[in-house]
Task: inverse folding
């Protein structure tokens, strides 16, 4: 008879997630489900608010990537105003965005994931954390903390605060950058560049020790989606949508972000609050696609900055066409950090960086608008409809993490099939399942911040309710 | 390498959620300290506030003469002000980007070779719902809390403390 293993909660976040593993009569994993079990409700309680408030409201969806929501919301507002914002504002928004991506990726790699790499998935959970990392390699820990701090300094210098700012708004940004602010950011660049280059060198050596993970952590064909520039280059703030398949062949290109509903559908399942976006021409669930750093490097033909392009060429050798294994999200994140450092340096050198022309004024001129950006975790859409007076009548947010939902479920299944055997559970198995999710750096990942220490209980229960085995921590 | 703004002074870190009524008490204490007029003999204070304690603070902590962490607490008689010495410790906080005061001290010691003397100054709260106002009893405790910070800083006002054991 079949059996069920439940990991609940997987982690703590703004909400909770759990994993169910279903075993067949032979004790092999037959299915896995990654459930998001809490409901946020932003799309509903924003109804009736002014669209001008939405950047501030939606930035509170998350404490790690509030800037992404603020930017995407403001871009939806730009569409409602029907304005082309000043070039100076675009430049500053991009600068903020690169700071955000950099700090988020640094958090993911150094704080959340590196304890697994450096200390091992089977190491003592009590030590498999940043403290353990500090003891094992204090230089890596120190550099990682300062790299994240650099990204936060960029955000604070521009937006006045590290989280939940009101600096970005429909029409542009609230204030220009000062010369002192520019110099403050610039002073960090040499160290940031050195840190990320050293980390890439370290990681490329380290990957050899993780070939098993690379083989089974989300290593399967899928589509990949991301923003690209008009010439197909890496893009995070603007641009159009491109899909590629597992061979790297372009499936659809230069799609308008305003018309995303033409090519992205959303399915729901009764066992989770997280929706399942899919590529409409291939239906559900065949239209599974992935977003985020791995996807962005798969869809882009080039980065457009010299050091990142050099790394991209090396990265591409990991796959025939697209790089498929979710394990390589970590590598892609590091390349994007390098790219962000290069772009920040480039923007800081712009002759008109300090222009006071950073905000366009207009009244609402449209009743519907879509904002789209590449958040650290993937493509993010804010779609608003407003009524007279500019009050939100309807909102739909397609979160980056949601777009990886199908792929995360498949990843959990793949890892569980490889590591979960019979009727005995081991703690290292739990950590590997969490590590597979963590590779995607989902916005649920506040829960995966509790690596190895979350109150996590897995029970293997027979059909008659008998508990066959239990693994727990906390 | 850019130098952080970490003066050689007593570091006062106020943390908590300013939108959750008495959880904001530490921010109010900080504002009270900020509004004090300079006075001869009053020790120099470096004031910082945060929603959470983060690893990035470890460098400044390591350079401070001493650290006063200010926070609200849920237990105790509302308005009660308590000052407790703390030592570096990993504790059981599983979050990687939000730390306890003890863990932040440990970061300072392990990464930068020094954990200064430190206390947690906590004020027992009465209400932790949604709102920006302090409860009356906690508001009345603000002057006591401010005096407690000054008292602690004075007690530490002496030449450089002994360095802790090397990392």
Result:
């Amino acid at each position: 008879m079949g059996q069920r293993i439940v990991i609940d909660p997987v982690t703590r976040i703004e909400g909770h997630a759990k994993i169910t593993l279903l075993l067949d009569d032979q004790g092999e994993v037959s299915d896995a489900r990654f459930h998001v079990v809490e409901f946020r409700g932003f799309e509903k309680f924003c109804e009736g608010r002014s669209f001008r408030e939405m950047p501030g409201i939606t930035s509170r969806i998350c404490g790690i990537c509030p800037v992404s929501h603020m930017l995407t919301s403001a871009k939806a507002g730009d569409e409602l105003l029907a304005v082309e914002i000043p070039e100076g504002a675009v430049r500053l928004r991009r600068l903020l965005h690169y700071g955000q991506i950099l700090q988020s990726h640094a958090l993911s790699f150094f704080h959340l994931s590196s304890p697994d790499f450096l200390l091992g998935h089977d190491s003592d959970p009590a030590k498999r954390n940043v403290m353990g990392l500090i003891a094992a390699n204090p230089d890596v820990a120190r550099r990682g903390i300062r790299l994240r701090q650099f990204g936060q300094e960029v955000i604070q210098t521009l937006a006045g605060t590290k989280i939940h700012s009101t600096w970005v708004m429909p029409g542009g940004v609230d204030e220009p950058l000062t010369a002192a602010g520019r110099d403050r950011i610039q002073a960090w660049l040499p160290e940031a560049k050195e840190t990320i280059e050293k980390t890439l060198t370290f990681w490329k050596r380290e990957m050899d020790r993780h070939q098993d993970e690379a083989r089974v952590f989300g290593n399967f064909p899928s589509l990949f989606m991301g923003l690209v520039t008009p010439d197909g280059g890496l893009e995070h703030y603007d641009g159009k949508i491109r899909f590629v398949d597992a061979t790297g062949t372009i499936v659809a290109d230069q799609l308008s972000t305003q018309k995303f509903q033409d090519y992205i559908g959303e399915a729901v399942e009764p066992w989770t609050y997280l929706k399942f976006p899919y590529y409409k021409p291939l239906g559900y669930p065949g239209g599974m696609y992935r977003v985020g750093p791995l996807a962005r490097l798969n869809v882009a033909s080039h980065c457009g900055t010299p050091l990142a392009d050099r790394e991209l060429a090396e990265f591409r050798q990991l796959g025939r066409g697209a790089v498929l294994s979710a394990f390589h999200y970590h590598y892609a994140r590091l390349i994007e950090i390098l790219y962000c450092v290069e772009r920040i340096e480039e923007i800081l050198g712009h002759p008109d960086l300090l222009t006071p022309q950073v905000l366009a004024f207009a009244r609402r001129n449209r009743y519907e608008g879509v904002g789209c950006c590449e958040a650290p975790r993937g493509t993010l859409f804010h779609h608003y409809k407003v009524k007279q007076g500019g009050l939100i009548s309807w909102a739909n947010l397609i979160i980056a993490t949601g777009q990886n939902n199908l792929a995360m479920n498949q990843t959990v299944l793949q890892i569980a099939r490889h590591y979960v055997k019979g009727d005995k559970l081991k703690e290292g198995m739990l950590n590997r399942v969490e590590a597979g999710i963590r590779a995607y750096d989902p916005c649920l990942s506040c829960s995966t911040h509790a690596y190895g220490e979350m109150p996590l209980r897995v029970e293997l229960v027979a059909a008659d309710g008998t508990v066959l085995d239990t693994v727990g921590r906390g | 390498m850019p130098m952080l703004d970490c003066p050689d002074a007593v570091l006062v870190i106020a943390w908590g959620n300013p939108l959750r009524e008495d959880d904001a008490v530490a921010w109010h204490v900080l504002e009270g300290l900020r509004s004090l007029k300079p006075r001869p003999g009053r020790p120099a204070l470096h004031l910082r506030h945060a929603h959470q304690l983060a690893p990035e603070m470890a460098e400044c902590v390591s350079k401070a003469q001493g650290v006063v962490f200010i926070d609200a607490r849920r237990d105790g008689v509302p308005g009660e002000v308590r000052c407790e010495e703390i030592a570096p410790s990993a504790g059981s906080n599983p979050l990687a980007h939000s730390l306890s005061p003890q863990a932040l001290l440990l970061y300072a010691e392990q990464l930068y070779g020094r954990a200064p003397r430190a206390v947690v100054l906590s004020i027992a709260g009465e209400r932790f719902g949604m709102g920006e106002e302090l409860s009356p009893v906690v508001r009345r405790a603000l002057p006591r809390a401010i005096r407690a910070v000054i008292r602690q800083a004075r007690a530490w006002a002496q030449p450089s403390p002994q360095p802790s054991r090397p990392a």
Q: What stands out?
A: Chain A has 15 helices and 16 strands. Chain A touches chain B at residues 12, 63-64, 107, 111-112, 129-131, 134-135, 138, 141-142, 145-146, 148-149, 152, 163, 184, 187-188, 190-191, 446, 449-451, 453-454, 474 (CB under 8 Å).
